[in-house]
Design goal:
The structure is a homodimer of 533-residue chains.
Chain A lengths: L15 E6 L2 E6 L17 E2 L1 H17 L5 E6 L4 E3 L1 E2 L1 H6 L2 H24 L3 E6 L2 E3 L1 H8 L2 E6 L5 E2 L2 H5 L7 H8 L4 H7 L8 H6 L5 E4 L3 H15 L17 E4 L3 E5 L3 E6 L4 E7 L12 H4 L28 H7 L4 H19 L5 E7 L2 H13 L5 H18 L4 E6 L5 E2 L3 H6 L2 E4 L16 E2 L16 H5 L4 H9 L7 H6 L13 H14 L4
Parallel strand pairs in A: 2-4, 3-6, 4-7, 5-8, 7-9, 8-10, 9-11, 15-16, 16-17, 17-19, 18-20
Antiparallel strand pairs in A: 1-2, 12-13, 13-14, 14-15
């Protein structure tokens, strides 16, 4: 399989058109039959492959960040008589199992993002089915808040996977029909065995669609409904959109290694060991956009002296450690650290999942000042309910971390001296399968370095829920409310290894090879710095 | 695979011993290595196959019905140094996929039954691991409310499936470790990759077991804990146990057909059509045990005149239609209709699942008087909170219907004249994937026959939840509370096809081939008999 990049922009779309008229955007699916991501199949009948879905994902993201004025999004088709025939069957037949799993996962995540925009961003999605929507095409419609179907005696919705292919509609079809749209299960069972689909009034009576509209009134009713949703949608104020400028991404590969370098995130892939070492760098010291460059935020440039081994309280965070206001954030735009890191992580996760399926272990490190991470978090949360951009950035972190949760790799967080696992970045450790926090210091570490700490903050207690609706800490301490309360009380305090281990925030706290003596002395230090309970 | 029967009794056990001392029962697993259900493997190290689990299921059921005095059940091993090594690997390796799925499903259901006994019957299960419990052995322990592990420097618990076999611990291992016992996920992840397992204090600290006990105090502490659980368990009064006498089961087979006949349940299997036609007969007219014989309850003996096409209200049920008291029930014992039907259905489901994997469609009919079904239901529910036997019978119905829910066959309910889909038997139609209710009468039906009805009753509104914790009606009308309330208000009323269809209780209401005229007139009748809303 050839290399796949997930970065694109409307100028480069081959399969979608984006039209914006005031508060209503229209995403028109008009798949280029010859535009398959890999050779060997034609994308007939508006069927899709990963390339088509990458464009859809990009469009949904840009609507959120670049077009805050948009409050309703109509998803429709540029083809006559057909909305979308779903995932391309020939593409699926020619694909390896791992490719199909990865493809469906991404497709599901994009549909989840559409629902997230409807629910949390005040951009309500409306599927306007001017023709038949079958299989994944109907599943795309199911991700929208409302479904309109043209009533022309031929257009239907269908999930023909079972009768035609003997597989289940796996991109949310069965679950959304039953659990989201509340189609009665016996009717859903019948529907899923009826390859010719269901249209007209029965489709509405069974709740498969919300409304069927005669052909003569189609355009008018779709526009009317979109305006209605736009009027009732609640989108926060906060100024015009910001442009999602192209990521700075540098990829160099040899036979056995790949290095991917963004501004704040790097990944070193060792194919022989099947390991990717990922490092996320914390916010830069200065706030002006000019200061956000790789040179100022490389791990070496972070003085260990800025990482206090003792308690770090939020009150101690000076304005200099974070942006002063949302105006600063808007000025920095896509270069603003929190947004830039979310984009870089998002792209890296998708890149590694798709292009490096054999790299089974991801080691995740951070480097920087924990206090600064918390300061950035605090600003976003202070404006979460009043500024669309603050909210969008937090929602993007939520989705990116959820992507990490369902990434089928062994995720190991390595918490080492100079790291900044605090608040939003602590979520990376909590999303990992296991975490190892160095007890003490590396033998060959920098002189004067301070041992690693972890710091919980408000981001760990609500704004970034997992797919189960719980925070990662709630999930971690399921059934152990005391442990959760204890960590809650320790918000803003930098915890050394011993304390983090005792509080259940890390899996293991190994010592280095320097043996028990030095670690023993560190252990005493650790105990001295523990807050009293 | 040879024919498997699920009926057994302690006299015939090869792998388990049951000991009862007052309120404490001990189930000792002592697997006969040479006692495999099919040739080709030895059941070493207390490993199990379906035959071992059939005995466990039987023992759990008998403790509930035959030994209401038992309030704590100790599950332990008769082997030195080993509790149970889980499902036999050679057996699994030699089995077809469908056999393994069916085996694991039954095993899961038995473990679910152990949890149901602990939660709802006041029989608390305690796993006493006097040796290592690995894989399915640990999963059996996980089904118990408490786990004690001997602390002897060698006994451990483990889920070695992943490192040793590359499969997940699928009989509840991962889910119960995390969601039931609340082992922290990162620790559970580590545990599931550590084939050598975890014992001693760490097993308790990580919540993998509840208590580790030194060898010298083992017997004493196990007995002490069992007594403690027995003292705190709440088991309802209601007299001594009743014997689960052997089922009357007659099985006759030809090359293409099988007929299975119990007292109240029959199944006619047509291998050419891959269909099983199942008929459940309603309660007999008389209440004395002598009257409960196949002759009096065969479908032909049920006069259609007893099925009123008009409304049947609970108040109209005379004492003669049901047992007068729980004393009557106790006198009838295992022959009591509600219990006998649950046992027969349970056995039939297991038989067909295991012995007839190619029979993909099960057609389910009932025959009898709906009012009588409701009368039997009412008696059980009236004593649900005060009589252990009434409660056990309802709980058994709950488990049997859940078994039906997860049976991977197409289940079709056929609701025809002379049927009694009311209350507990209506659940059969609600558990089906689809239901067809005849609109009108069969052309060749009996003269004077009345059309089919369905009747909701108290059993449909709480006592028989599905695995999702909701009733079948709540699940059916998910998100449509009005529909649920409407059906609730119609409790006790016999609804004809048109009304049942309008209320969403049946999937389809086809007419017979006599055409629309006659069905049209039936339709008017149906409307006349509808209660006003």
């Amino acid at each position: 399989m050839s290399h796949v990049e997930f970065q694109t922009s409307p100028d480069g779309y081959r399969h979608w058109r984006v039209g914006i008229e005031g508060p209503v955007a229209t995403l028109t699916m008009d798949v280029d039959e010859q535009g398959g991501l890999v050779p060997g199949y034609e994308l007939k009948l508006n069927s899709y492959d990963l390339g088509v879905d990458i464009e859809l994902y990009d469009a949904v993201q840009r609507l959120r960040f670049e077009h805050p004025e948009v409050k309703a999004v109509v998803v429709t088709s540029g083809k006559e008589k057909i909305f979308c025939a779903g995932a391309n069957i020939r593409m699926l037949a020619a694909s390896e199992h791992s490719w199909k799993v990865n493809f469906c996962k991404f497709t599901n995540e994009t549909r989840g993002g559409i629902e997230d925009a409807t629910e949390n961003s005040g951009q309500t999605y409306l599927a306007a089915l001017g023709g038949t929507a079958s299989g994944g095409g109907y599943e795309l419609a199911l991700a929208c808040d409302k479904i309109l179907l043209i009533d022309d005696r031929s257009s239907v919705v269908s999930l023909p996977e079972l009768p035609l292919l003997g597989v289940l509609p796996g991109t949310g079809g069965l679950t959304r029909v039953v659990d989201k749209r509340h189609v009665r299960r016996d009717l859903a069972d019948y529907f899923a065995t009826k390859s010719e689909g269901i249209g007209g009034k029965k489709a509405a009576a069974w709740k498969l669609v919300d409304e069927v509209v005669p052909r003569v009134r189609w355009q008018e009713v779709v526009a009317e409904r979109a305006r209605g949703y736009a009027e009732s949608a609640r989108r926060l104020p906060g100024g015009p959109g910001i442009e999602l400028t192209p990521l700075h991404k540098d990829r160099t590969a040899t036979a056995s290694t790949v290095h991917i370098k963004y501004v704040h995130v790097t990944a070193a892939i060792d194919r022989d060991r099947a390991v990717a070492e990922i490092t996320v760098t914390g916010p830069p010291a200065a706030v002006s956009p000019a200061a956000v460059s790789p040179a100022t935020v490389s791990p070496a440039a972070v003085s260990p002296a800025t990482v206090s081994p003792a308690t770090v309280s939020p009150a101690a965070v000076s304005p200099a450690t974070g942006p002063a206001s949302m105006d600063d954030v808007r000025e920095q735009g896509a270069a603003f650290w929190s947004l830039a890191v979310a984009r870089e992580l998002d792209d890296l996760i998708l890149d590694l999942r798709t292009n490096e399926p054999e790299i089974g272990t991801w080691l995740i490190r951070t480097a920087g000042d924990p206090a600064r991470v918390l300061a950035y978090d605090d600003l976003l949360l202070a404006y979460y309910d009043s500024d669309w951009l603050a909210r969008e950035i937090v929602l993007y972190w939520k989705r990116t971390l959820k992507r990490l949760d369902v990434t089928s790799r062994s995720l190991i967080a390595l918490i080492e001296p100079g790291s900044c696992f605090a608040g939003s970045l602590l979520e990376l450790a909590l999303a990992a399968d296991r975490s190892f926090m160095l007890f003490g210091l590396f033998e060959d570490g920098e002189p004067g370095a301070a041992p690693a700490t972890v710091t919980a903050g408000p981001m760990n207690f609500g704004p970034l829920p997992m797919g189960n609706g719980l925070t990662r800490l709630q999930t971690r301490f399921l059934g152990d409310d005391d442990a959760l309360v204890t960590v809650d009380r320790l918000q803003g305090r930098a915890l050394l290894a011993q304390a983090a281990l005792e509080r259940g925030l890390v899996t293991f706290a190994p010592t280095t090879s320097t043996g028990p003596t030095r670690c023993g002395s560190r252990s005493k230090n650790a105990r001295r710095s523990l807050p009293t309970r």
